[in-house]
Amino acid sequence: MTEEFHRIKRLPPYVFAEVNRLKAAARARGADIIDLGMGNPDMPTPRHIVDKLIETINKPRTHRYSASKGIPGLRRAQAAYYERRFGVKLDPETEVVATLGSKEGFANMAQAICSPGDVILVPNPTYPIHAFGFIIAGATIRQIPASCGDDYFRAVEHAVKHSIPKPLSVVISFPSNPTAIVADLDFYKAAVAQAKKLGIYILSDIAYAELYFDGKPPPSILQVEGAKDIAVEFTSLSKTYNMPGWRMGFAVGNERLIGALARVKSYLDYGAFTPIQVAAAAALNGPQDCVDEIRALYKSRRDILVDSFDRAGFHIPSPPATMFAWAPVPEPFKALGSVEFSKLLIEKADVAVSPGVGFGEHGEGYIRVALVENEQRIRQAARSIKKLFSEYTGVPMAPETPTSSHASQ
Q1: Taking the chain, what is the end-to-end CA distance rounded to the nearest angstrom?
Q2: Phi, psi of 340, deg, nearest 5
Q3: pLDDT over 70 at 379, yes or no
Q4: What is the full DSSP assignment across 134-161?
Q5: Per residue in 24-52, pLDDT tens?
Q6: The domain defined by 6-44+290-408 carries CATH number 3.30.460.10
Q7: How far is residue 147's CA from residue 369's CA, in Å, rounded to a whole number?
Q8: Which helix or strand (DSSP H or E) is residue 81 part of?
Q9: Where in the chain is the domain with CATH 3.90.1150.10?
Q10: Is the pTM of this model over 0.85?
Q11: Which CATH number fits domain 47-285: 3.40.50.300, 2.40.30.10, 3.40.640.10, 3.60.15.10?
């Protein structure tokens, strides 16, 4: 009776576990760790959303069982958001399901649509639930590039041609966690056309659609005519409104897939606590200046991260969206790999990041840096890394001097 259970055996060791253990040990020793690892927003939830929660929680009837697929007012609010933001009309009864964050949505969609041995196409690197939700459900994962270029379309075509059984679905995610790549509407048009030709579904994750910095707001795949024939899209309030612990997200789109998800969820949960759902509706229906403020703050942090780390000798490409930067491990440390480099940053610089290999084998050689510390702490992290680099490479770094107005704010 000591053999691992079947589904547990299919899950590899948690890549972040060793880094998290070192982080906890360092803090236990009294180290002041600047944590740029987990994408856990550090800002408060906007006041009007919290006030609505408090108002609703004081009504005894809201403490009863809730609605698994989401209360009607919340589903209507999500449909209104899609029409306002993307020009997409959704039927709140048949094309919208509230989920306990997009993570739960993906996991239960996998349970709803997969049989053991089904093939799912998943980008690599990507957010882990995109793969492991389906692995837990018994599916087989086939990797495709985490790209919105021609290599994506070639890989999907090749996978459908050479997979037995034929893939059931492909997962896409833009703006991407961890790479911050953004797709445009032309990509979605081509992706929908290809999926229809090949007879596969598309599961699209746009959890970071409101955290964009340079250019047009990222589109939805459902803006493409006919996309609802084959696509479901997942969103989340976690980052948009600083509500990660509230666990509120949505799946919207294809009626058949949404119906399957709603049916599975009806057996597994009663939905989020009703006051949370009411407050989430208030977030979607209420003033949106808080979203603009959150976006502006992340943009400022992004600019300071890129500038200050560059002056420390660590070049980080500027991400156009999300709350993450995707950075190559610096050349003098490349041989260490992403996990050992991440451990070195904790042990010698008191800075925590996420090793890229935790997002898939093709993330090796990169780290993900989350914009979840204030601007002063980001600069402090850059100074510590600058000192580490000087010691380990033997190359003195140039003195830190402001190079732009936003770097000295």
Answers
A1: 61
A2: -65, -35
A3: yes
A4: HHHTT-EEEEEES-SSHHHHHHHHHHHH
A5: 999 999 999 999 998 889 999 999 999 99
A6: no
A7: 20
A8: helix 72-86
A9: 6-44+290-408
A10: yes
A11: 3.40.640.10
